[in-house]
# Entry
Amino acid sequence: MKTRKLSVDLDDTLVSLVPAILPEVNSKLGTNVTEKDVRDYYDNALFHSGLDVSALCRKAWSRPEELKLVDPKLPDMLSSLSNEYCYKIQITTGTVADLPCIRSCLDHNGIVGDSIVKVWGQQAKVKQEFSVHVDDLSHVASMMNDAGKDVILLRRPWNTDIVASRGTIKVVDGWPEAYEILRRR
# Structure
């Protein structure tokens, strides 16, 4: 019987969305920006250049079979957490993608979850019931910490403002480290 709920963000926590939109960003702006150059997920000069970033994200999600996972071993890790360590896995996302595209991408990449919950606004993630949440956004991790909820923050170029674990936030360098924390809980 699954007794613990693992909540996992989708965009850039499970699925690499920023790398999927950067080729078009670079083409339209005549730049050569990489994922490592994106220092702020929402307030980046590239994304305030007149480009409709939401439209670029929707376009990327319209081709779910082309989207890659942030870690190719995620299917095995999530399956193990579900089957061996009794986690119920809920994908909790505020993505612009619609559910059929999300399901298609997850199926194509071998990700199995117990449920997908679309929320409006990051604060709505905090209101979900779960044992632990995994995200890539530092402000979501801070909101979780303020609410006393356990959160694992995947270190990304855009969340370097939280450099070390504090309170209920555990900062990790990637999914293998997150998996070890979850496995030992």
Q: What stands out?
A: The chain has a mean pLDDT of 90. Residues 18-64 form one domain. The helical segments are 18-29, 53-61, 74-83, 99-108, 123-126, 138-146, 175-184. Residues 18-29 form the longest helix (12 residues).
